Amino acid sequence: METWYGEGLKFSCTGCGDCCRGDGYVWLNRESAERMARRLDMIFREFVDTYVRAVTEGGRFRGNALIDGEDGSCIFLDGDGRCEVYEDRPPQCRTFPFWGNLVASPDGWEQAKGRCPGVGCGKFYGHDEIRSIVDGTRAEL
C-alpha cells in the first residue's frame, strides 16, 4: 500500500519531555503496569492503586491509563523533564511519534513536529520500519 511517507521519515528523541506534557492519556495494559511496578520496586496492586485510573467515556469503560501529575504532565516526568520509568515505559511512549494518527497524513506529522523538536530530525526510519511500529509488530524505537 502506498503511503505519503514512502521515502521514510526522520525522528530522534531529544529528551525534552514535551511529548509527556499536556492533554491526553498514557494507556496501559497489564504487562506495562507490571514492568513499571517492578521498576519502582512496588507490588502490582500498590502500583495500580497509586498510579492507574480507569477511563470512561459516556459511561463506557475505555481502558486504563496513568494518572496525571499536578500540572497535567505524565506522573513519571521528573523535575528535569526525564522519565523515571524510561526503560519500562508503555508501548505508547516507546512508539511516539509513529502513531497511526500522526503518520496518517502530512498534516498529522506536522502536528507532531509542532509538539516535538525531534520529529523530522536525526535517525531515518524507512517505510516498512514505520509500518511495523504503527502495526505493533515492532514495539520499540
Sum this structure up briefly.
The protein has helices at residues 30-39, 44-51, 91-95, 100-103, 106-115, 127-134; strands spanning 9-11, 27-28, 52-57, 60-66, 119-125. The chain is an alpha+beta fold.
Question: What do you see in this structure?
Answer:
It is a single chain. By secondary structure, this protein is of the alpha+beta class. The strands form two sheets. A three-stranded antiparallel β-sheet has the order 2-4-3. The protein is globular. It has one domain (9-134). The chain contains six helices and five strands, in the order ββααββαααβα. It has helices at residues 30-39, 44-51, 91-95, 100-103, 106-115, 127-134; strands spanning 9-11, 27-28, 52-57, 60-66, 119-125.
Please give the order of strands in the largest beta sheet. 2-4-3
The low-confidence runs, each spanning 5 or more residues with pLDDT under 50, are none
Task: Report the structural category.
Answer: alpha+beta
Separation, N- and C-terminal Cα atoms? 23 Å
Large-scale geometry = globular
Percent of residues in helical segments?
25-40%
- In N-to-C order, the SSE pattern is EEHHEEHHHEH
Any idea how many domains? Answer: 1
Number of extended strands: 5
Strand content: 15-25%
The largest pleated sheet is described as: 3 strands, antiparallel
Average pLDDT, rounded to a whole number, is: 92
Computed over alpha carbons, the radius of gyration is 16 Å
Helix count from the secondary structure assignment: 6
Give the key terms.
141 residues, alpha+beta, two-stranded antiparallel sheet, 32% helix
